[in-house]
Design goal:
This protein is of the alpha/beta class. It has 15 helices and twelve strands. Helix 1 runs antiparallel to helix 13. The termini are far apart.
Length: 482
């Protein structure tokens, strides 16, 4: 090897090693802050929900009215089960609006037949511009159930139609194939009762694969038999009970899952509703709400409530999961680019100075840095320029810290909610935590890199998402198929 090149390569690898080490220390130091914050927030939350008198208030007519918005696109296999579950939610003042976004299957026919729907006058205030509405139906059996049939315009457009029709003080945006536990809304509304400046609250999402569903409710909670879905259970628990719970303590929540989120309707309409030209419409709306609250001089909060549980189906093939993670990373990149002027901007307080930089350096750039580190490691080993002991120690430390973080999350879940009652499932969860960093994590890094490249290329589509349905019925893909 040319000595000049060898010297340059050795210097490059040494600097890369130093930068990687500093990044590793900074990220894991922040993870430690989030971990402690998550523990303290969980303690506070468990003390808060111990007051039984609050439940009487939540079940009274003093509770704010809530409108459920359920957009549906080709959901004939799951829409009836999901809607019956919505109508059975334990909440005193509830309106349910299903928005059929130009489905090509028999979604509307299933709804009309199952819920005794009749057409009514198409009269509403178009506070947000949307695609035309073709028809409106009300149920003669279920008070408060409305079905809006509209031309296809995408999920964001469907939600905006729902906002135009909604009468509730709060709106709950959800996916039509999501199941919410019976008392989920009662738990979700808590932050709005405690604070006047709450803009939105989000709840925990769990993986339904492997569990049993009866009458629109999860009757038996089990881990998926599919190992790919099993890894996602671990990911979801870590994301909600570590990440979002920790950020909640620090006042830095910026994500409300599209599958289950409660918003102040007036604030969403004032902000212009959901954007059509992004695949990250959920996060984009939350950041816009937060940003607008700072700019108008009335800072609002985004709250996370760990115990309301919604259930959603996870992909069981690497192909479909890869499409999902590609889309998520594209959405993140798009949102951060749209709101790039918030980056390190003191006007937006902790959001601009801490949260947005975290999402940029850790969530967006993380896979790039990790992939670069793996390439540098391989080059160093091939040319004999890397200290093998240091590399092994670094890997074992990273593996140990990652596994310990996941184990903490699993213990927190078991002590707080104990959803997985079977001992076999708890053992499997810890086994998945041990195996996650041995191939699965590297796959997610690749998918996220692909998502960044897709964003650079300007890709906007969702990517096809195949679903089995809650009762193993064949199901037509939803928005992914647009």
């Amino acid at each position: 090897m040319n000595q000049t090149f060898a010297g340059w390569l050795a210097s490059f690898l040494l600097r890369s090693e130093f930068i990687g080490l500093m990044y590793f220390i900074a990220v894991n130091g922040w993870y430690l802050v989030l971990l402690v914050s998550a523990y303290l927030e969980m303690r506070r939350h468990m003390l808060l929900i111990s007051g039984e008198s609050r439940w009487r208030l939540l079940s009274s007519r003093l509770s704010p009215t809530i409108t459920m918005l359920a957009p549906a696109y080709n959901e004939e296999a799951t829409v009836e089960v999901s809607l019956r579950a919505l109508l059975a939610l334990h909440y005193p003042q509830l309106e349910v609006i299903v928005i059929n976004d130009g489905s090509k299957d028999s979604t509307v026919d299933v709804l009309v037949k199952s819920f005794d729907l009749v057409p009514v006058k198409n009269v509403y205030d178009q506070l947000i511009f949307t695609k035309p509405v073709r028809g409106v139906y009300r149920s003669r059996t279920y008070k408060g159930l409305v079905v809006v049939d509209k031309e296809n315009g995408g999920k964001a457009d469907a939600l905006n139609v729902g906002l135009n029709f909604a009468h509730g003080e709060l709106v709950c945006a959800m996916d039509a194939d999501t199941l919410i536990e019976a008392d989920g809304l009662q738990r979700m509304v808590r932050p709005f009762l405690h604070k006047n400046n709450v803009l939105a609250s989000g709840g925990t999402i769990r993986i339904i694969n492997g569990s049993s569903v009866e009458s629109g409710r999860v009757s038996v909670t089990r881990l998926p038999r599919n190992v790919i879905a099993g890894f996602q259970v671990v990911e979801y628990l870590r994301a909600f009970l570590f990440g979002r719970l920790g950020w909640n303590r620090l006042g830095g929540n910026l994500i409300i899952s599209g599958a289950f989120g409660l918003f102040r309707r007036e604030a969403v309409i004032d902000a212009g509703g959901y954007l059509h030209d992004t695949v990250g419409e959920d996060m984009e709306l939350v950041i816009r709400l937060k940003r607008r609250s700072y700019e108008t001089g009335n800072p609002g909060t985004i709250e996370f409530v760990p115990d309301p549980v919604a259930w959603t189906e996870a992909p069981e093939s690497l192909k479909v999961l890869g499409r999902q993670r590609d889309r998520w990373q594209r959405g993140l990149a798009d949102v951060l680019w749209r709101h790039r002027d918030m980056f390190l901007n003191p006007r937006y307080r902790v959001t601009g100075m801490v949260v947005v930089p975290y999402y940029f350096f850790v969530e967006l750039c993380g896979p790039v840095i990790e992939a670069f580190g793996l390439v540098a490691l391989a080059v160093g080993l091939v040319f004999g320029m890397l200290d093998l002991k240091f590399a092994l120690l670094f890997y074992l430390t990273a593996y140990g810290l990652g596994t310990a973080l996941t184990a903490f999350t699993l213990i927190l879940e078991d002590l707080s909610f104990h959803k997985y009652e079977h001992f076999e499932d708890r053992v499997k969860l810890f086994g998945l935590a041990l195996l996650e960093n041995m191939g699965y994590r590297q796959l997610t890094v690749w998918w996220r890199l692909r998502g960044i490249w897709s964003f650079v290329r300007g890709r906007k589509d969702w990517g096809a998402m195949e679903r089995k349905g809650f009762q193993d019925k064949p199901v037509t893909p939803d928005y992914a198929k647009e």
